[in-house]
Amino acid sequence: MKRILLLTSFVMSLTFSAMATHIMGGEIIAEHNGNNNYRILLTMYRDTVGINTDSTQTFDIWQNGSIITSITTQMDPNANHPIFGFQQGTLLPYFPYGVEMYFFSDTITLPGPGEYTISWDNCCRNGAIQNLPNPLSVDMRLFTTVTVDPNQGNSTPYFMVKPVIYLPVNTPWQYSPLPYDVDGDSLNWYLAAPHESSNSSALGDTINGYTDPPSDPSGMISIDPVTGTISWTASMLGNWVYTVVCEEYRNGVKIGEIRRDMQFIVLPNGNLPRFTNIGHIPTPNGYPEWKVVAGQNQHLTILAGDDDANDVVRFRAYGKPFLLSNPPVCYQHATGVGNEIKAILQWAPTTNEVSADPYLVVLRLMDGTYMNDEAIFIRVVQNSEIEEFEEPSLGVFPNPSDGRINIPVNLFEAGDLTFKIYDLAGKEVYNKTSHFDAGNHLVVIPSELNSGQYILSVDQNDIHLGDQQIIIVK
Prior knowledge:
Strand content: over 45%
Number of strands: 33
Shape: elongated
Number of domains: 3
Helix content: under 10%
Distance between the termini: 69 Å
Largest sheet: 8 strands, mixed
């Protein structure tokens, strides 16, 4: 309780200068609704210390550098956010201090094919922001760009994961907004400067004097080009503004853009919730990848905890698989060791979910003050692909063998391993089950098999890990 009170006092000292500047950030997207019809969605994140949110908001629609129309939309107090699911004005959970979500939506009909920009302005920015030279003198411009394609529908991308606002100073930390495009267009993301309004430009103007949030040299603020994960080791306390931009490309041509303009609030030193054994997940392409076989019910278990014994750790997962008609499920179990949990993904994909490209998924931990993200890939394969994929991981040696079989095993979760050996007639000649902790192991099987060829099969609990041919020479 003492820790919470201290953090609340610190946060209030940062935000009370913003009594008239309650909007902490936001984003705009456009969803294609057939023909030239689009639904605009503005999402705003509000500091509860500030003034109340206006019940109406106005969008400007730009084409070729000019405003062609403006629309004003009314807040629906009973609506639920179409992406995040929260009701209008919901206090976002698991933050140490109040942040509310408001949103405004309306449908427009654009004149015809071409590129359009939809913009929204809000005055003024939070006076506590430290990486703008005079934050109270500049406003916020949010915008999205969308191309009306006469041959194919086109919606802008959107961010699948809610923003993270609070993080501890001098602590390596990660957050992923997880951009996603329903049309399957190529996405490119980067960090950029926030914009202010302009009467002559749909995009507004980059705010003069903006500087990147201050970083420890060992952890400069950056965004991963593959996963979109933002990494940062903040070196100073305070409020810092940033923008993450996601561009949309089709056949090599840019057709859209979204941006999330948001504040980070860096608090005094604290402990982050962390996955403690995520390094055990294989990284065939440099990133954690969980391989799932179509037609089998499988689960991935990762341990997580927090060095603050009083914190309660919670787990969530986000990504395209959770939008499918046959989605995975995520849940958690306490291990009984302090606040440690097992964070579990479980999925029984069908052949409909098999994809040449792996699915990008964000795993989020929350402890009531801080959040911390990890990105992993899930690759769904056919049964026919499993032997080719798994066989090298068995790596039996020596092979041929004089009878002693060494099997290196890398487990990213504890469990029972069953080793079975079959002769070429399919007769089982060896069967043994043992329990292993997560990590690397060298399993030794002192076999008394006669000379010949055999098939070694390895299973962990109800998951088949692979098969490998072995040769015994005596």
